[in-house]
Amino acid sequence: MAELALDHPVQRPSRWIAGWRRGGPKLWIGATLVGVLVLVALLAPLIAPHNPIEQDLMSAQLPPAWTDGGEPAYLFGTDSLGRCVLSRLIYSARTAVAVALIAASLAAAIGIAFGLLAGSFGGWIDQLTSRLIDVWMAFPPVLLSIVLAAVIGAGLTSVITAIVVVDWTRFARVVRAETLVQLQRDYAAAARVIGLSRGKILRLEILPNLVPLVVTLLSVEMGIAILVEVILSFVGISVTGDTPTWGGMIAEGRQIVYQAPWIMALPIGCIISSVIGFNLLGDGLRTVLDPVQRR
Amino acid sequence: MRWGEIIRRLVLIPPTLVGVAVIVFVLLRVVPGDPIAMMIPPGASPADIDRLRAFYGLDQSIPQQFITWSGQALSGHFGRSISLHQQVFELVLARLPATLELALLATLIAVVLGLIAALIGTQVRGRRAEWLVDGGVGILLSIPDFLWALILLLLFGVLVPLLPISGRIDPEIDVSFHSNFYLIESLLTARFDVASALLHHMILPALALALPFAALLARVLKTSLAEAEDQDYAQVARARGFSRPKILLREVFPNALIPTVALGGVQVTLLLGGTVLVERIFSYEGIGNMAIDAVINRDFPLIQGLILTFAVLFIAINLAVDLLVTLLDPRLRHG
């Protein structure tokens, strides 16, 4: 019998394929956009036609190659210092991806820890966390991250710190609420009845049930982290002057928007496609991972 | 939200504000940069520097500075701006109306657009066009206000130069105002040419703030309308032969409004927070733009004052929304 069962396994598509299908167009459009972004960031030195910080004042503010006066060597033209816009766009993706991955993961880790503690222990720990979240909610998030980044000083670390400090509450709030809900469920009660410790219940029972929620939040948070980095570099307090960033390009483009509107338009396009990519990916993953919809 | 809950929230306001003040205060004082160093001319004597530091109270310990500051803050003195050499309270008061007018106009636009989109979406429910409405709302929602600001600036300021892209009013218009609520004042005193000039400057930033908010309102309202339409009272009204628009307006809409106000109201705080960058992008002279300058200039007293102003506004809006929901929902009123 055992052999029979092995010879003729139940015909069903693998979990991956089934999940991919259930995610629908949202999942694959999102995954494609995010995938392209990550690839561009990884392969930047290989695919960028020029050095992004190399100046060529003789060919400053060239329009895109397909318009009058454009040069084929500079597909998207050059900025006011004669730097290749396409290469700057490509290298900016590196900052964006680095910030998205690191900042969002750290914010998630801290937020989940606080949320789980508050949700499962209750009492003064919950009170303290909730008050802390209240105080955080009273801050204008954009202004807080600007103040933080300015206080810590320019650099990637300061941008990431600013995002983590501002955004951990997004995770903490949701995880706390969801932990409270899950602990009320029968399976959590059953785990208590069979004598599992609180730590074990959290790790073995509650945490796996939080995964769909957290993955969705994480994906959306990566999009938010990219936006915050753009904001900080637009204001001029992100990474140092030489490193190209989309926000920095927008700020430079804003100065000469009437003469060279494409310098501002192109990074905006990149940002929108990245953010929509992360949002769609999050939406798609939620459908795939949600245990209720999976059945 | 019952009345008891609202009282509890009122009681929690002072500690929340103190928390905000403490965090900002400590944060700003662990900065490595020295605001005094930026103000002094080269060659100032150490004695001069010390005098300046003492003048701004920066020579005392952090807890001591906080006690001094909060004591003065309670009597309405939030210190002197280091970069603008004026009282913070007066500076904020002079700029706040510009931001409030912008936020108000944006909310108004958002409510109108959101309402229209939700009603259209409900009318075409189950048809192909519903997909179009949902998709449009989804795109509006996933692009944040400051990106809309940049897009609108490019579209209607540069490509099709219909509207001005910076400032609050044309510099050549020279009119005196009694208050800093320029738009409201010019409307009340029937100076419509001035009001129209102001609106020309406000429409792009307001629209940028309004679009994501409108999309959110549309989404929540459309879902609530769909739910309310399936409820018994709506079925009964249909059975009694009332027309669909009448049912929508008289029976369904008031009930669908409650979750919309509850969820949408909280988003007003996000809209207000969004003014910081949108004002910057359009060089609009509100408190958001001022805040970024204050950060760049390391103007501690001004940053503190501005963040506290935002915090008070946020808390007030949240409370107002809770009150409104309690008033709208008969179940909670007698709860």
Poorly predicted segments of chain B: none
Structural class of the helix and strand makeup of chain B?
A: mainly alpha
- Main β-sheet description of chain A: none
Order of helices and strands of chain B: HHHHHHHHHHHHHH
Our count of helices of chain A gives: 12
The overall strand count of chain B is: 0
Shape of chain A: elongated
β-sheet strand percentage of chain A: under 5%
How far is the first residue's CA from the last residue's CA of chain B? 9 Å
Order of helices and strands of chain A: HHHHHHHHHHHH
Oligomer: heterodimer
By DSSP (H or I, 4+ residues per run), the number of helices of chain B equals 14
Strand elements of chain A, count: 0
What is the structure about, briefly put?
The complex is a heterodimer of chains A (295) and B (335). Helices cover 75% and strands 0% of the residues of chain A.
Commentary on this structure:
- The complex is a heterodimer of chains A (about 300) and B (about 325).
- Chain A contains twelve helices and no strands.
- Chain A has helices spanning about 1-5, 15-40, 45, 85-120, 125-135, 140-150, 155-185, 185-195, 200-235, 245-255, 260-290, 290-295.
- Chain B has 14 helices and no strands.
- Chain B is globular.
- In chain B, about 75% of the residues lie in helices and about 0% in strands.
- At the A-B interface, helix 5, helix 6, helix 9 and helix 11 of A face helix 1, helix 7, helix 11, helix 12 and helix 13 of B.
Provide keyphrases for this structure.
heterodimer, A: 295 residues, mainly alpha, 12 helices, elongated, B: 335 residues, 76% helix
